[in-house]
Every structure is written in C-alpha cells, then in structure tokens.
Amino acid sequence: MNEKPRMDQAVKHLAEQLRGIRSGPIGIGLVATVRVAVGGNLVPIDRLARVRLQGDRLLVTPFDPANLSAIVRAMTDARLSAYAMNPTTVAVSVPPMSGEQREEMARHVKRLGEEAKIAIRSIRQQSRKQIEASGRGSLKRAQEATDEAVGEVDRLVKGKLEELSK
C-alpha cells in the first residue's frame, strides 16, 4: 500500500535525532535539533540565528536580538550550558565527553534505533492487515520495504556508534 513513505519518514526522524547527538568534539550539529519557543511556535534554531564554531564553544547570533532570551531558555532546557555573552550573542560551551558519557550516549543511540525499528515494524503490521482485508497489495513488497528501512536504521546506528567510539 503506502508503507514505504511512512517507513522512510521513521528513518528520517531517526537520522535527525542522531544528528543532534554529540559524538566527539563540539560541532554545529549539537544545537541543530534545538527548537525555540517564539510566538507560540517551536522554531528550529537555524531559522532564528546563525550558529558558528569558535574554539571550544558555539556562538549563536540571533537574526532578531529580541529572540536572545528565548534561545538561551531553549538551550538551557536542552541541558546545554548557554549564556548571553553580550546583547547579541549566545555562547554554548560544552566540556569534553567522558568515557562514561560516551557509553551512555551509545546506549541512547541503540535505544533510538530500536524505537525506530519498532515503528517500522508497526507500519508493516498495519500494511499486512490492510492487504489481508482488502486483498490489494503485496505482502512481499511490504516485507521488502521493511527490510530496506530496518537496514537503513542499522546503518545509521552503526555509523553513530563508530563516531562515539573514536
């Protein structure tokens, strides 16, 4: 039926989650998934500010200085050490990761991968029920889409785990 686009969406969601997980030295991806509450909406940080790397910290410069306090609040809520460096810039500093933190991140990455696989299998199950009820569609095609999506999840998780082990 229409399981492939839904499975692809689950894989994309996992990729976005993994992009926000720090795996080593600080990088811009660390704040890429932070959403800022502005005007009653949650807006991705890259639509509100320019993010750049400076040494061991990130500098976030809002396009509209009025959003500075909302950005600091969102960073703090995301458990990042953020502070207003001056009236136009937010600094985000992150200490190096310990071995224990890397292990915790690896467990988190595996958990996210497992959740994505569960979502994909749930979509397959729904598709199987629809196919059996309507007689339209192919069980084989649904299984192939599932195998492809699960393979992609495994590839993403493996890549992130390799980054964490460096």
Description:
With about 170 residues, this protein is of the alpha+beta class. It is built from 5 helices and 6 strands; from the N terminus they run ααββββαββαα. The protein is elongated, with a radius of gyration of 20 Å. The termini are far apart.
Helix percentage: 55-70%
| Order of neighbouring strands in the sheet with most strands | 3-4-6-5
Poorly predicted segments: none
SS-derived structural category? alpha+beta
Mean residue pLDDT:
86
Distance between the termini: 42 Å
CATH topology of the largest domain: Topoisomerase I, Chain A, domain 4
| CATH architecture descriptor name of the largest domain | Orthogonal Bundle
Tell me about the biggest sheet?
A: 4 strands, antiparallel
Q: Looking at the structure, what is the overall shape?
A: elongated
Strand content: 15-25%
- CA radius of gyration is 20 Å
Q: Please tally the β strands and state the result.
A: 6
Following the backbone from N to C, one meets helices and strands in this order, namely HHEEEEHEEHH
Give the helix tally. Answer: 5
SSE order and pairing:
Layout: H1 3-19, H2 29-32, E1 35-38, E2 41-44, E3 49-54, E4 57-62, H3 68-77, E5 81-86, E6 89-93, H4 99-134, H5 139-165
Helix pairs in contact: 1-4, 1-5, 4-5
Task: Pick out its properties.
2 domains; alpha+beta; four-stranded antiparallel β-sheet; 6 strands; 57% helix; two-stranded antiparallel sheet; 166 residues
